């Protein structure tokens, strides 16, 4: 699942006074070779302990390995094109969050620059949940006359809701419980954060897919869409759901 967070960085006790410095934040999804999301901070002048106010907005995906890298640069005033890499820090988003949202890490200095490497430089990275992402939506789903997928019985249906992430890939937002041996499932109500469901964009296309749990291996918590049969699917938006009447919307 995805939860919205903001990443920031504080550096203390720099071994030399910098004319100007800035940091570059990047998050890679699924490993080093995957696409990165990059943000550069503002310039901070003549400061041994810069605290950059620019934040990197990110979504924590517990199902993916997200590697976050912070590179620190020195430059002459506004001349970022000729900036020099001083060093970097690197860790995973999950490690920071599981450390209470704040972590002190060592900096890896650029071997081509001269600094006093004996100076104790504290690098503090912070990840905080976005306080403006608490708007929720209530969704109730049920099905009628679903296709029978099991040879000796009825279906064991469950629903997964997807949306496309910033890389154009389908991202799982929610999975319902499995209801066994029925063609008329009535799933538990959903209370879900809008940011998690649609990234805060109520016109974002959502993909509802209903599967029949195979049931051959494990329990109903261990679903596998590569094995389970697809019963049916439909697309809609939060905006359309919000504009429905008290009887809801029927999809077929």
From TrEMBL:
Residue runs in coiled coils: none
InterPro entries associated with the record: C2_dom, C2_domain_sf, C2B_Copine, Copine
UniProt-recorded Gene Ontology molecular function terms: calcium-dependent phospholipid binding
Span of domain C2: 117-252
Annotated SUPFAM superfamilies: C2 domain (Calcium/lipid-binding domain, CaLB) (SSF49562)
A Pfam match: C2
A cellular-component GO term for this protein: plasma membrane
GO biological process, one term: cellular response to calcium ion
PANTHER family: C2 DOMAIN-CONTAINING PROTEIN, COPINE
Protein name: C2 domain-containing protein
Natural source organism: Schistosoma mattheei
């Amino acid at each position: 699942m995805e939860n919205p967070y903001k990443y920031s960085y504080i550096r203390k006790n720099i071994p030399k006074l910098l004319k100007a410095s800035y940091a570059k934040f990047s998050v890679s999804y699924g490993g080093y070779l995957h696409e990165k999301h990059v943000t550069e901070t503002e310039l901070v002048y003549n400061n041994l302990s810069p605290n950059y106010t620019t934040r990197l907005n990110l979504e924590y995906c517990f199902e993916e390995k997200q590697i976050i890298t912070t590179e620190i640069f020195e430059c002459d005033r506004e001349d970022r094109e000729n900036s020099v890499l001083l060093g970097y820090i690197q860790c995973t988003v999950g490690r920071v969050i599981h450390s209470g949202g704040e972590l002190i890490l060592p900096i890896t200095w650029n071997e081509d620059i001269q600094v006093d490497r004996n100076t104790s430089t504290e690098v503090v990275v912070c990840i905080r949940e976005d306080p403006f992402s608490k708007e929720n939506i209530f969704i109730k789903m049920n099905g009628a006359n679903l296709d029978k997928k099991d040879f000796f019985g009825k279906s064991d249906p469950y629903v997964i809701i997807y949306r496309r992430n910033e890389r154009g890939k389908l991202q799982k937002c929610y999975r319902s419980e499995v209801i066994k041996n029925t063609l008329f499932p009535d799933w538990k109500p959903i209370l879900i954060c809008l940011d998690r469901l649609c990234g805060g964009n109520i016109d974002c296309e959502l993909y509802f897919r209903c599967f029949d749990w195979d049931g051959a291996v494990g329990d109903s918590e261990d679903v596998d869409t590569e094995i389970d049969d697809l019963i049916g699917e439909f697309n809609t938006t939060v905006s359309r759901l919000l504009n429905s009447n008290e009887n809801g919307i029927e999809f077929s």
